[in-house]
Amino acid sequence: MALDVLLLTCLLVVGFLYASVGHGGASGYIAVFSLFNIAMPAYKPWVLVMNVIIASMAFLQFYRSGYFRWSLCWPFLLTSIPAAYIGSQWAVQTRWYNIFLGLALIFPVIRLIGLLPQERPKAEKVNLSLALLIGVFVGFASGMLNIGGGIFLSPVLIMLAWANAKESAAASALFIVFNSLAGLLGGKLSGYTATTSSYLWLFAALVGGALGAFLGSRYFQQKTIQYLLASVLAIASVKLIFFS
Description:
Blueprint: H1 2-20, H2 26-35, H3 40-64, H4 70-87, H5 94-104, H6 106-112, H7 128-145, H8 150-159, H9 165-186, H10 196-218, H11 223-242
Helix pairs in contact: 1-2, 1-10, 2-3, 2-11, 3-9, 3-10, 4-7, 4-9, 5-11, 6-11, 7-9, 8-9
C-alpha cells in the first residue's frame, strides 16, 4: 500500500512538473514506472492517454495566456503525425527500448540544467524545409518510444531561435497531443485492459497536470522546477540504460 501511494504521488509530481513547462509527461511517467519496476505492457497505452489529456490542458493554459503561434507548429505536425504512426508500429525489444528511452531522457536533462543555448532575444523565421525534416525524425522517434516528442521539439525551437520558452511550451503541448494520438492509433492496443490501478495512475497525473499547467503558464519562475525534474529524469535514465 505504501508503495502504491508513493507511485501515485510520483505520477502527480511528474504531471505537475511537465505540464508547468508545456509537456505531457510521457517520458517522466515511463521513468516512474521503470523506477517502480512495473512492466511496460501494464502501462504502455496509459502513458499516451495521460500525455494527450495533460498536454491538452497545458496547451489550453498557454494558449489563453497568448503564447501560441500556429505558424510555429503546423510544419512539424504535417510530417510528425504520419511518422509517429509508423514509428509506433515498430516492435522494439524491451532491453533496446529501455536503452533508447534512457538515451532520449538525456536531452531534456541537458536542456533543463541549462547546458543548451538559451533563448535569443530576437526570434528567427521558421525554416519550412528544416521544420518538415525535423518533424519526420521527431515524430518517428516519438512513436517508437511511446512518447509525445516534446522533449525533442522544445530545445530545437529554442536553439534555432524560432521561439522563446513560453512559445515553445505552447507549440510543444499541441505537438505532443497529436503525436500521442498518432501513437495510440498506430500501436497494437487490443490486448490492453483498464484496471483500478490504471485509473488511479490517470487520476494522479491529471491532478498534477491541471495544477502545473495553470501555475506554469501564469506564475512560475521555472528554474527550481527544472532542476528537480532534471534530477528525476537523470536517475531514471541511468536505471533504464544500465539496470533494466
